Amino acid sequence: MTLATSKPPESAAFADQRSRMVEFQLRGGGISDERVLEAMSKVPREEFVPSDMLDCAYGDCPLPIGAGQTISQPFTVAFMCQALKLSGDERVLEVGTGSGYAAAVLSLLAKEVFTVERIGRLAERAKARLLQLHYDNVHVFTADGTLGLADQAPFDGIVVTAGAPELPAPYVTQLREGGRIVIPLGCAPFDQCMYRYTKHGEDLRRENLGGFAFVPLIGKHGWKGDFLR
Ligand code: SAM
Fold first, then answer.
1. What is the pLDDT of residues 79-96, one digit of tens each?
2. Is 72 a catalytic residue?
3. For ligand 1, atom 17: residue with the closest CA
4. Which of 70, 84, 105, 117 best tests ligand 1's pocket when mutated (most atoms within 8 Å of CB)?
5. Tens digits of per-residue pLDDT, 162-217?
6. Residue 71 near ligand 1, beta carbon < 6 Å
7. Pick from 43, 41, 46, 68: which is nearest to 56 by CA?
8. Global pTM value
9. How many CA atoms lie within 13 A of 109 on its CB side?
10. Which listed residue (6, 11, 19, 72) is catalytic?
11. Cis peptide before 154 (omega within 30 of 0)
12. Residue among 211, 222, 94, 213 nearest 169 (CA)
């Protein structure tokens, strides 16, 4: 007989994989922000990957989510969240909702998360999943995220989970004083460096955080072609 309080074996197995992911891939890979590690230890990545990929839910790699797009590698999600240096009171814009996984992690690190996805069916799926899992401080939009979300600005943090040729100008306008933008930039669609920009009055301080590979950010202030569909 199964006790009502006991976890189903599958979810216990996922919880075990999740804590190993946090220890070995994240802490072992150099992620040190305890709030980020805690958030990553709480969000069930298995809920955000396709059902035929559950075995790979905690693998150290991105996974396909349909429409030629991917859910990012756990390390990359943790790295970008850490780079934003969130304390919990912030309004954050995420560009590139994808599966909704990073938005769920951000929702535990910030006060409100606004996430925008250009592909309608991915946005709708992510919205339903986030609602079902009670990530109630996440707001999902379908739009060209290279324009930011002017109606919801200003933001304390902006994180872009697709690679752009250059920093889209609307992000600077929509960023609050002292706020941060974390974005992969590169002159080829799948080969970027991650940058953090910090706004100080008229100045925008830029730091290079290292090499990454992302799907392209496509839109008015991004890449123009559709590379993957
Ligand atoms: N953060 C996502 C997650 O946790 O699953 C992974 C994002 S995936 C690496 C990049 C996403 O950016 C794709 O879903 C893609 O459709 C989206 N994207 C590309 N260009 C965009 C744009 N201009 N506006 C909004 N989303 C865009």
1. 999 999 999 999 999 999
2. yes
3. 96
4. 117
5. 999 999 999 999 999 999 999 999 977 778 999 999 999 989 999 999 999 999 99
6. yes
7. 46
8. 0.94
9. 31
10. 72
11. yes
12. 222
